[in-house]
Structures
1.
Amino acid sequence: MTARYPLLYFWLRLSSILLSTLMLVLPGLAQHLSLFLALLLIAVLGIPHGATDHRIFSVLLYRKGGKPMMKRFYGGYLGLMLIYALLWWLSPVFSLLIFLLTSMYHFGQSNWNYVNLRSWPKSLLYVLYGAFVLFVPILAHFESAQPIVASIIQRPLSQASPLLLNGGIGVVVVLNFGMIGLLWAVGKLTHQQAWAEVLNLFILLALFVSTPLLVGFALYFSGWHALSSIQDQIVFFQSQKPGYRLKDYVVEAMPYTGLAIFGLMMMIWYSNSIQMDAASGILFIFLSLVTLPHLVLIEMLYRIGQSAEVEWGATVPE
């Protein structure tokens, strides 16, 4: 991804370094504004990157079935969210495991989809990277994560020793650096790509360790993940509709972005508690509900959109 969008990653690196520095200089302000900053970043950047899923589906499969296919899309998309919401109510622990696994794969896919690997090694690569961006901030700020996770799974979470927490961070970090070295050694990454990925891991590691849990994850999710995904989607739409620009994406994403933000606010409003830990837990549950169907669709985009099955240049239905 870095090689495709060098300017984007330059600003992401710079903003991450500046935010890390600011949080170290003003730690009190950071803690006080952490939930607000997380919500702002996710609302402005994170949610919109999934707000054009209906457009992606229409490009991929509309010509195969017309309007009935779009009805299936809305029914399947909303149905999957409702089923997952019911599962959260019935079994929060199992639902959390699903969220972690699917998120790990999804985050890794957005970073590593450009690498030419066979199916299972590529999936392993995705999961390892996803483990880095999920577990490093959680383990680095376990005291902050503990009450949030407890509110999500509705049961107390046991303490963990610093040795275990730091050891977990070390294992995940070493595995990811090792994977980059292995990919470079077997010729799957150029020298420039390998160094760019190493630099990204170092900056993200510093960001996750130096910033509060919610702030670090929100910047990664909204910037490193969502913005690069938006870039990919715009490139895809441009292949179907010459002249498609960022402003077109913003216009198309606005209605569903507003609807998603409204849904998030309603979830927080109807919560039994509006304490920060409970609100943070609701935020992660909300993200899980919109991530699962989004992940399925993005998997289709990478699998079908890069194959001959899609008629490139076909008219995008309005």
Note: Confidence is low (pLDDT under 50) at residues 308-318.
2.
Amino acid sequence: GKEALDCFYHMQCMNVQPNAITYTCCLKACGSVKDISKGRELHALILQQELLGKNAIICNALIEMYARCGCLEKAREIFNKIAIPDIVCWNAMIACYVRQHQGERALEMFDKMQNEHLHPDEATFTSILSACADMEVLPKGMLIHRYAANYGFDSNIGILHALIHMYGNCGKLDEAQALFDHIKAKE
């Protein structure tokens, strides 16, 4: 991450104009090294160039960067400014809450996403099942399991791993074992 930010600095010294991909990579670098001051500086440059409203990838990178630096409220502020957030934006925000052990807020985002008539994908289910596992909320986890199955994700390996984790944390070892055996049978 530090090397990427050094490259960005050298680009600026050489008057090379950064584009959306440059900013996205640099924001990821800021998040990985938890350099919030450089992240805020990049955010200001993005606003100056009016790139924020034009590029969902930059919005997601900003959300991730702020969340990884421990600024969840700022991440949520960025999310709230997106006119029509896509599934990737929702997933980024849900994952941010899960990583910061704020499962209740992740579940709230999941419910709001459904109210917006967006269909969860593998990343959504994996994150939200992790939240259920961390909070040990078996009824909600079981509901999400059924929901994932209804969307055809019942044989997705990433989701199966998240389900094993959720059932195991919630003390339902028989269900976790059955899912594990299902994975082994597919090999």
Note: The chain has eleven helices and no strands.
